[in-house]
């Protein structure tokens, strides 16, 4: 009898019932008030007169009228840089003990995003909320006695001046509460190994000693890790060594393109739960099994705003035009792409995180990530979001019964005009021309702007097939393997030329 598992499951069920229904709109009003109150005596708070806003009956409106939008470069150059010069109380009281290093999907140079103790606590509290939400999923009691393998970045953080630096997954894992350490795998010693290949080799070596019930990490790196475990132990599938594996919490990128190749490594179905942990905070998680949408964490350290996505509002460098209108949670609707703006307990204010989202349920504050502001493919007016590209790719995989875990593309100019040029990572033998036609047909059917573009400047689709490993090696050369690293789905022509040169050298 699983006494511990039944006890934990019972506590989760009772706690979830006690917490009851939430009110996301009211939560957000209170979060903004708390943020302004806490930061009113900082240099940023004084500059934008937070104390006056707190006494304004139209606080939310005044906040967005008075405080401009910031992308990373803007807020770093104007404000966060002062932290590195030794100043305190800049955009948040005190000085942060951590900085999250993030190259995102657009470059090799790292951003340094402040992570305060309040943010670490907020991430921990959001994680607890996600655990409590497991009561909505029909999981057996013995699941709650198994381990969770978290494949993030190294927890061996780098000391720099008076703070520690690392990727957000490494910072979070290094601050895991003591009560959770017995469930956490691969454990502190292995998690501190910086070299990703060496860390995965150690995981594969120890895999038989663990009873893993859940996996957590970015799909591409999770897949590679599972393949190494399967290869090391000469298995047919991962359930032969981890028979109690029942849950995979994905994050960072859409799971759709990886679903087929991921399932091929399984011996039986697992529950996939999406999460949205960014370098700037824990933003959302899937709270119920009836949908794959994620619930915004509206009561825990982050105030959200939403800018209706319009190419006219997005500047060439990916930042927002200051005249772009923003909406609060009470004003949004379903079926509309929004640019996500956040203000946080780490001192990010009206910050362009770079993602676009769509609401699937406003009342529940549930969203889907639809793409990146820099990754909307709009060179010739096609206005394609990453989720539309993912959907088209899934149709290709279904039609030809193949796995394509990685891809990238560019609206590339040839002598006779622009072509959407796709590189697909797959080991399957497939006719690129047939794939190109299927992609073209699927996108025409799904997007009227694409159809219009195809009748004008966009001449067609070209497809090139390469080994999936080339994508991982590209990341290794340009960024780093593992952790929070994600492949850029859409490239500009300059970056794409570098990619094509890299591919040529690998062949």
Task: Give a quick summary of the entry.
The chain is α/β, with parallel strands linked by helices. It has 17 helices and 18 strands.
Explain the layout of strands and helices.
Blueprint: H1 3-19, H2 24-39, H3 43-47, H4 50-54, H5 59-66, H6 72-84, E1 98-102, E2 111-115, H7 117-133, E3 147-150, E4 158-160, E5 163-166, H8 168-174, E6 184-185, H9 188-191, H10 196-206, E7 212-216, H11 219-232, E8 247-251, H12 259-263, E9 271-278, E10 281-285, E11 294-296, E12 302-308, E13 337-344, E14 351-361, E15 366-372, H13 386-400, E16 406-414, E17 417-425, H14 432-446, H15 448-454, E18 458-466, H16 468-478, H17 493-506
Parallel strand pairs: 1-5, 3-6, 3-7, 7-8, 8-9, 17-18
Antiparallel strand pairs: 1-2, 4-5, 9-10, 10-11, 11-15, 12-13, 13-14, 14-15, 16-17
Helix pairs in contact: 10-11, 13-14, 14-15
């Amino acid at each position: 009898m699983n006494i511990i598992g039944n006890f934990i499951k019972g506590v989760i069920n009772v706690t979830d019932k006690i917490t009851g229904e939430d009110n996301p709109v009211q939560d957000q009003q209170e979060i903004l008030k708390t943020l302004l109150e806490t930061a009113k005596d900082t240099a940023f708070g004084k500059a934008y007169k937070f104390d006056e806003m707190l006494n304004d009956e139209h606080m939310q409106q005044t906040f967005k009228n008075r405080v401009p939008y910031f992308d990373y470069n803007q807020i770093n150059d104007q404000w966060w840089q002062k932290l590195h010069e030794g100043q305190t109380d800049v955009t948040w009281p005190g000085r942060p003990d951590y900085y999250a290093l993030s190259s995102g999907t657009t470059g090799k140079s790292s951003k340094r995003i402040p992570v305060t103790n309040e943010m670490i606590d907020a991430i921990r509290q959001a994680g607890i909320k996600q655990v409590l939400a497991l009561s909505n999923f029909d999981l057996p009691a013995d699941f709650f006695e198994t381990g969770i393998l978290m494949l993030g970045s190294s927890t061996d953080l780098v000391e720099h001046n008076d703070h520690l630096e690392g990727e957000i997954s490494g910072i979070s894992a290094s601050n895991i509460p003591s009560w959770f350490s017995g469930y956490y795998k691969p454990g502190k010693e292995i998690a501190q190994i910086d070299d990703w290949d060496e860390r995965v080799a150690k995981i594969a070596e120890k895999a038989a000693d663990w009873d893993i019930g859940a996996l957590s990490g970015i799909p591409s790196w999770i897949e590679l890790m599972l393949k190494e475990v399967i290869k090391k132990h000469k298995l047919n599938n991962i359930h032969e060594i981890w028979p109690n594996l029942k849950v995979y919490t994905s994050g960072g990128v859409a799971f759709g393109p990886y679903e087929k190749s991921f399932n091929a490594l399984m011996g039986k179905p697992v529950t996939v739960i999406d999460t949205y942990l960014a370098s700037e905070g824990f933003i959302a998680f899937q709270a119920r099994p009836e949908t794959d949408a994620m619930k915004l964490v509206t009561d825990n350290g982050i105030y959200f705003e939403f800018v209706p996505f319009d190419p006219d509002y997005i500047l060439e460098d990916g930042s927002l035009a200051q005249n772009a209108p923003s909406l609060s949670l009470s004003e949004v609707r379903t079926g509309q792409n929004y640019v996500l703006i956040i203000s946080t307990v780490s001192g990010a204010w009206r910050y362009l995180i770079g993602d676009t989202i769509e609401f699937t349920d406003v009342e529940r504050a549930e969203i889907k990530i639809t793409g990146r502001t820099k990754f909307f493919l709009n060179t010739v007016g096609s206005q394609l979001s990453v989720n539309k590209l993912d959907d088209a790719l899934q149709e290709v995989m279904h039609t030809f019964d193949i796995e394509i875990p990685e891809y990238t593309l560019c609206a590339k100019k040839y002598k006779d005009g622009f072509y959407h040029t796709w590189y697909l990572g797959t080991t399957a033998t497939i006719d690129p021309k047939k794939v190109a036609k299927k992609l073209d047909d699927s996108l025409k059917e799904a997007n009227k702007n694409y159809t219009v573009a195809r009748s004008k400047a966009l001449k067609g689709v070209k497809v090139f097939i390469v080994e999936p490993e080339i994508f991982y090696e590209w990341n290794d050369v340009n960024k780093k393997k593992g952790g929070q690293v994600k492949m850029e789905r859409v490239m500009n022509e300059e970056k794409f030329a570098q990619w094509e040169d890299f591919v040529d050298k690998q062949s």
